[in-house]
Fold Acyl-CoA/acyl-ACP dehydrogenase.
Amino acid sequence: MLLEFDADQRLWQETVRDAVGKNCAPTLVRSVAEDGVDPTPLWKTYAEAGWTELTDTENAVELAIVLEELGRATDPTPYLATLTQFAPLVGDRFDPLSAGAAVYTGVTAVRDSGGWVLSGTDRFVLDGDRAERLAVVTPAGVFLVNAEDVTARRVDVFDPVLHVAEVSFAGVHVADADRLPVDTERARHIALMGMAITMVGACQRILDLALEHAKSRQQFGVAIGTFQAIQHKAADMHVAIERARALCYFAALTIAADDPRRRLAAAMAKASAGECQALVFRHGLQTFGAMGFTWENDLQFALKRAKAGELMLGGAAEHRAMIAEEYRGDY
């Protein structure tokens, strides 16, 4: 199992980074947050570039490369939810031109004469308000549902460009053909890896902005980056990011190879990314001082995206507990 990018992956990373820099610039993210600009054209750009076709598990590393760059840019599209939560649950029913979302909790399915009836509410569905189709996980299986058959309401969250919705099912009828035979455990591993590497990308953006500020901001006649206190914070952020990044790509490798270690690898990636964002959030904000709290500073978008990732799909403490329990059972 190679732990470094090969030549093709390095070229892919450079290509994606260049494309994201041109199409998802900070000015676009700010216009989405402040003026409600529709990011659909950006989503179509991703689709036209073939990025929405990275659904085969063999492409997990290439998908992770895209997600890291989108996390770094605070991507305002439904790419994360569609490719890492919805697509793994629907298999060959996936349409690369359509946005999707996954409903993980709160819904039950009851058999009737013509199929199944879904009822319940999930209060926090990533991109549930703008998905065209939903993959609904229930104790009776996974069901594919059209968005027009449910009630979705976007809820306010602190990340101004992140869409989180309350999705309700009031006796939604689903045919037997829309009950999907899917490995929900593997799908969860992909979702965890995707969320974790997105957080790593956001943390990298925080570090980049902090370093830029430390080089230009002057105190006592010199750049604050010359102070050891700032240097130590930057070093700690770098180490935390590199550690989390390595675990995320290891998780992607285990998914691509269908390695049985992928369960632990995905949990370790999410836990490490959660711990990383806590440190990077604190040090990055402290490096900026009061400026970091202002709306005019683009730092806010990366901070909020990193913190939002920690609150979705289980936090670091939850995944650390699972890992500890797993190892305790081996002795």
About this structure: The longest strand covers residues 115-126. The chain has a mean pLDDT of 95. Residues 184-216 form the longest helix (33 residues). The chain has three domains: 7-93, 100-180, 184-328.
